[in-house]
Amino acid sequence: MSTPRPLLCLVTDRRASRAPLPEAVAAAVAAGVDWVQVREKDLPGAELLALCEAVAAAARRARPAVRVLVNRRCDVALAAALDGVHLGFDGVPAAAARRLFGAGTLVGASMHAAGELDAASLSALSYAQLAPIFPPLSKTAIGPALGLAPLREASAAPLPVLAQGGIEAGNAAACIRAGAAGVCVTGAILSAADPERAAAALRRTLDEAARETGGSCR
Q: For the domain 7-213, what is the CATH code?
């Protein structure tokens, strides 16, 4: 039986990127990024839609199997024909998003503590992100880092949990060993001089950790 491949999700921040965002995303996807979440909260709808379309086109040229999501904006996800949406705390409830998008679309949400999501949300979601595991690399921390123990607890739930916050090649394996289904990164890839090389290093680290765990991660 093959070992599950941990997910590598790139969460965008165009200001952190040394190259134009679609270009950097394409390089990272070619090196092994599985999901791209466009997270550009300051952009108005039309500009966000245009950016999502450009990012999705670049990512899919690099690897057609990549999945592209947008943060918070269900309307933009639908208009840009994206693969899913990552919900905000003050946005559409998970159950409503699931009814809107149907069974085949990714619907995710953030957690800042294990057990934070209720049963109704868990049943409607495709995955959750737990953050910050470590001090963030790409933005100012708004609270203390959680560490690996809450990640281990959250990963016992019947839902894939992705670790986010301060993830880079040196600590990504620890997240997989703690039970995470994968990791979400921003600065470790976009702020790197060579996004493709940075993504490839993360990809190797995650795959090695999955082999070490014998497939016990999701």
A: 3.20.20.70
